[in-house]
Amino acid sequence: MSATAHHLLEIRRYYINFLLKLFAFGQKKVERKRVGKDQDDSETSFSEFDQPSLSFEQPRALGIDEDNKGFHMDHVLEYVTAGMASIMEDNVTKYFEPEELPMWNLLSRTNDRAYEFVSARLTVCWMVGFVVRYALLFPIRLIILTLGIPLFWLCMIIVGVFPNGQFKRWLNRKLVIFCFDFIAGSLSLVATFHNTENAPKRGIAVANHTSPIDSVVLATHNYYDMVGQKHSGLMGIFMRALSHASTHIWFERSDEKDRSSVVERLKERVNSPDLPPILIFPEGVCVNNTSVMQFKKGTFEIASVIHPIAIRFDARFGDAFWWQDKFHHYILHMMTSWAIVCNVWYLPPMTRYPEESAIAFANRVKAKIARQGGMIDLSWDGFLKAQPPKKEWLRQQQQEFARHLQVDNTEEEDQWSTKDKDE
Questions:
Q1: Do 287 and 210 form a contact (C-beta atoms < 8 A)?
Q2: Which residues pair with 306 in a beta bridge?
Q3: Which residues form the Phospholipid/glycerol acyltransferase domain (predicted)?
Q4: Please, is 420 exposed, middle or buried when counting C-beta atoms within 10 Å of its C-beta (0-12, 13-18, 19+)?
Q5: Residue 4, pLDDT score
Q6: For residues 109 and 413, what is the distance between their CA atoms, to the nearest angstrom?
């Protein structure tokens, strides 16, 4: 199953096609079991289009007409409704949970209905699949990963010996693609690249972010210098190895000085024709591959030309989304899946308009990536999953609400003055 064995590509395709037939067989059994139970299992939920909503970008006073002056108790009701709806069906955190599949993929961890016990034949298929994944595929993948890591280190050290120049860049590109392609075999990666004529050769490339292996997927086809948060453990091993061969940019997100130095280094490199393209994930967090969240504007302030890349994983074969607390749990989860299958689209480079702001440019690139990958385009900041909303966002909503409640006291004072004179 090694990704380096390109002559076995057709075998991997046959393997994927076989799995699709197996999933279809299992789905038929599951659907028969579901007949008659759909009505019992139906639940009522808020519709995202019917419920009142609040937006940080365009604050508005819910339940208050534009011409309204004065406060009425019923003005708060839509705020209460919006709050309750957000609690029942959160529009942010649901995109940080594993994707729900339209069909069962014979992985018991992806469902809570014990589909493996629907029928005797389906139970046998699930048991055989369990043995194949854990007793056959997992040991082979573990061997590939164990061999791939020292091979990667050795190749990067060899590249680091050579002086900077055209030969070193050529050798680095060849070895990085080869090594990542080899290591991708530990995940049984099957990646399909579309519109390769748009693959970036320099400048800044941005992509949506699902997992740490996004970089691995892209590096099996093209070479990039990478920008990212410093990590320890297995990810730290790869980062240190990459630093031997090229000028990747690693930073500590919590250190403001470190972040500002990254901006300066990017400005120095962005227009260099002799350096490889820089790969950045502007979301800053991993999203479950059903949506694309807010892009940070920093990248789009630096460069006027951006190379967008859309990545969409097929969760039927294995979920590449990183939702586990421990990275080794995440690696084990993928290495015991059927395979990691994805599509990658290289989009034409996009240029910032003369009067366009960095935020507008970021949103335009994000919308393009979401549309190409068939994902939902969201304006939410992905860091809301772990951090409270910014104070200025809350203040905007409060100011908008207060603006509609300003009472014209002039008429009221005149009425009281007239009343006093009459008395």
A1: yes
A2: 204, 350
A3: 203-314
A4: exposed
A5: 45
A6: 69
For 86-144, write each residue's pLDDT tens digit: 666 666 677 777 777 777 788 865 555 666 667 788 888 888 989 999 999 999 999 99
3-state secondary structure the chain: CCCCCHHHHHHHHHHHHHHHHHHHHHHHHHHHHHCCCHHHHCCCCCCCCCCCCCCCCCCCCCCCCCCCCCCCHHHHHHHHHHHHHHHHCCCCHHHHCCCCCCCCCCCHHHCCCCHHHCCHHHHHHHHHHHHHHHHHHHHHHHHHHHHHHHHHHHHHHHHHHCCCCHHHHHHHHHHHHHHHHHHHHHHCEEEEEECHHHCCCCCEEEECCCCCHHHHHHHCCCCCEEEEECCCHHHHHHHHHHHHHCCCEEECCCCHHHHHHHHHHHHHHCCCCCCCCEEECCCCCCCCCCEECCCCCHHHHHCCEEEEEEEEEECCCCCCCCCCCCHHHHHHHHHCCCCEEEEEEECCCEECCCCCCHHHHHHHHHHHHHHHHCCEECCCCHHHHCCCCCHHHHHHHHHHHHHHCCCCHHHHHHHHHHHHHHC
For residue 49, give the amino acid letter. F
Tokens of 119: 């029928």
Q: Which amino acid is at 410?
A: T
pTM of the model: 0.77
Read off the tokens for 366: 């994000």
**362 is written with which tokens?**
């970021």
Amino acid at 52: P
Sign of CA dihedral 144, 147, 153, 154: negative
Q: Please provide the size of the chain in residues.
A: 423
225 neighbors 243 (Cβ within 8 angstroms): no
